[in-house]
Write a structure and sequence with these properties.
This protein has eleven helices and two strands. The chain is mainly α. A two-stranded antiparallel ribbon has the order 1-2. The longest helix is centred in the C-terminal third of the chain and has 34 residues, at 262-295.
Length: 296
């Protein structure tokens, strides 16, 4: 008499399933996400609801209602919206120019590679580059001053300056995100429009724009979240003052005048997580809608 669990052909003869080990390939990814995404998020959420002694409290959240914190969130939203819009519009134009070229051409590969590198630029290096270029004594500033054009020496150290600097990495990020959507536009759709007597205006008005709008808005939301959570570049440019939310967190964590504000910083970070979470949820919805169009 044989056991019902006897293996036949690598599977249990009783109809059961053999344990699959294919999930082990994704284990490094899950470990990475757990250590560098989920764990820090849990630490922030937990810290926002306890006092320095570890006792539960909601007092930290009251900091979100203080005028300077509200102002910093407003400035972060304005900065993210402006730099995201600039990056989306200019990046879409660059992406379209790349998409109209040869798919396997060297120029396309060069632009895509450069965009991948520039989208990751930031921090002290990027801040120094802009200070040396359009800072108070930057190359372009001195050149314009010699032509009688006055440039404010504090341009880079406010919201307008941060918008210019952020656009530097927002534009190439838009190229990377939006280029696949442009590649998904099929030439047959334009040919069908022309066959039916339509013009280029009809094609863009009734075919291309409706299809590209969801991925464009999704990319815009992604750029917004990218700018909203950026810290290193702003910290390198602005050493005094905290005009945006990430810099408010820095003050709460490192202030020498008001000690014991670490959990207040976590409460501010929790507010940022909520904003980014809402934005990314909308981005996911738009991505699903655009994916349905491009699969047709």
């Amino acid at each position: 008499m044989t056991d019902s669990a006897t293996m036949v052909g690598g599977r249990p003869s009783g109809g059961g399933r053999r344990l699959s080990w294919s999930w082990l390939g994704a284990l490094p990814f899950f470990v990475y996400v757990g250590l560098f995404l989920l764990l820090p998020t849990l630490v922030v959420v937990f810290g926002a609801f306890v006092d320095p002694s570890g006792r539960p409290t909601t007092a930290n959240l009251s900091a979100l209602g203080q005028d300077f914190v509200v102002t910093s969130f407003k400035n972060s939203i304005v900065l993210s919206a402006e730099s995201g819009l600039i990056g989306a519009l200019l990046g879409a134009v660059v992406a379209y120019a790349i998409a109209t070229g040869r798919p396997e051409g060297g120029l396309r590969r060069t632009f895509v590679a450069a965009s991948g590198m520039l989208a990751q630029s930031g921090g002290v290096t990027l801040a120094f580059a802009f200070i040396a270029t359009i800072g108070g004594e930057g190359f372009i500033t001195v050149l314009l001053r010699g032509q009688g054009i006055d440039v404010s020496p504090t341009l880079l150290f406010g919201l307008s300056g941060l918008t210019i600097v952020y656009a530097y990495f927002q534009i190439p990020l838009m190229v990377l995100v939006f280029l696949p959507a442009l590649d998904g536009i099929r030439p047959q759709w334009r040919e069908a429009t022309e066959t039916l007597g339509g013009t280029s205006w009809h094609y863009w008005r009734h075919v291309a724009v409706p299809i590209l709008t969801p991925p464009f808005l999704g990319a815009l939301l992604l750029l917004f979240a990218n700018a909203f959570s950026a810290y290193a570049t702003a910290a390198a440019l602005i050493s005094q003052g905290s005009i945006i939310a990430p810099l408010q967190i820095r003050v709460a964590l490192t202030s020498e005048t008001i000690a014991g504000q670490e959990n207040v910083g976590k409460a501010i970070a929790l507010g940022m997580i909520v904003v980014v979470g809402v934005v990314m949820a909308l981005y996911t919805l738009l991505e699903r809608r655009s994916a349905r169009w491009l699969k047709k």
